[in-house]
Design goal:
Belongs to the universal ribosomal protein uL24 family. One of the proteins that surrounds the polypeptide exit tunnel on the outside of the subunit. One of two assembly initiator proteins, it binds directly to the 5'-end of the 23S rRNA, where it nucleates assembly of the 50S subunit. Pfam families: ribosomal_L24. It comes from Arthrobacter flavus. Keywords: Ribonucleoprotein, Ribosomal protein, RNA-binding, rRNA-binding. This protein has a 6-stranded antiparallel sheet with strand order 6-3-2-1-7-8, with no helix packed on it. The protein has a two-stranded antiparallel ribbon with strand order 4-5. The protein has a two-stranded antiparallel sheet with strand order 9-10. It starts with 15 loop residues before the first strand and ends in a 7-residue tail after the last strand. It folds into 2 domains: about 1-90, SH3 type barrels (Roll), CATH 2.30.30; about 90-125, no CATH class. A hairpin with a 5-residue loop joins strand 4 and strand 5. Helices cover about 0% and strands about 50% of the residues. The radius of gyration is 19 Å and the shape is extended. The mean pLDDT is about 85. It has strands spanning about 15-20, 35-40, 45-50, 55-65, 70-75, 80, 85-90, 95, 100-105, 110-120. It has no helices and 10 strands. The protein is mainly β.
C-alpha cells in the first residue's frame, strides 16, 4: 500500500473479535479465542486485542520516585494483524463479516443518512 493512503477498517475499538488463523489452542496458539479490541494501529494494519497474542517482556529493574520496584518479567498483549481476526456476531457468537446498511434518521428537523454496521450472517446491528 502507498505511504499516504488511509485504509477504511471494518474493525473498531471496543469490538468483540475472534482469532481466525494461527496455531490452535491445543498447540498453545490463540485461534478460536475471543477478546475486545483495545486499539487499532492504522499505519501497520494491526489491532491490539485483550488477552490475545500475549508475550513476555523483560524490562530493566529500577525504582519509581516513591521507592517501589519497577520492571522484571511482565506479560503483555502484542498487536495482531487485522486479517487474522473477525468480528463476532452478537446473535450466534461466531465470527462474521461486516456490512453496512444506510438509514435515514431525522435529527433537529433535518433528515440525515447514517451508515450502520451490520453482521452479514444474521443481519443484526453491531
Amino acid at each position: 500500500m502507498g505511504a499516504n493512503k488511509t485504509v477504511k477498517f471494518k474493525i473498531k475499538k471496543g469490538d468483540l473479535v475472534q482469532v481466525i488463523s494461527g496455531a490452535k489452542q491445543e498447540r498453545g496458539g490463540d485461534r478460536g479465542k475471543q477478546g475486545k479490541v483495545l486499539k487499532v494501529f492504522r499505519e501497520s494494519n494491526r489491532v491490539l486485542v485483550e488477552g490475545i497474542n500475549r508475550v513476555t517482556r523483560h524490562t530493566k529493574v529500577g525504582q519509581s520516585q516513591r521507592g517501589s520496584k519497577t520492571g522484571g518479567i511482565e506479560v503483555i498483549e502484542a498487536p495482531i494483524h487485522i486479517s487474522n481476526v473477525a468480528v463476532v456476531d452478537p446473535e450466534t457468537n461466531k465470527p462474521t463479516r461486516v456490512g453496512y446498511r444506510i438509514d435515514t434518521v431525522e435529527k433537529d428537523g433535518k433528515e440525515r443518512t447514517v451508515r450502520i454496521r451490520v453482521a452479514k450472517a444474521s443481519g443484526k446491528d453491531l
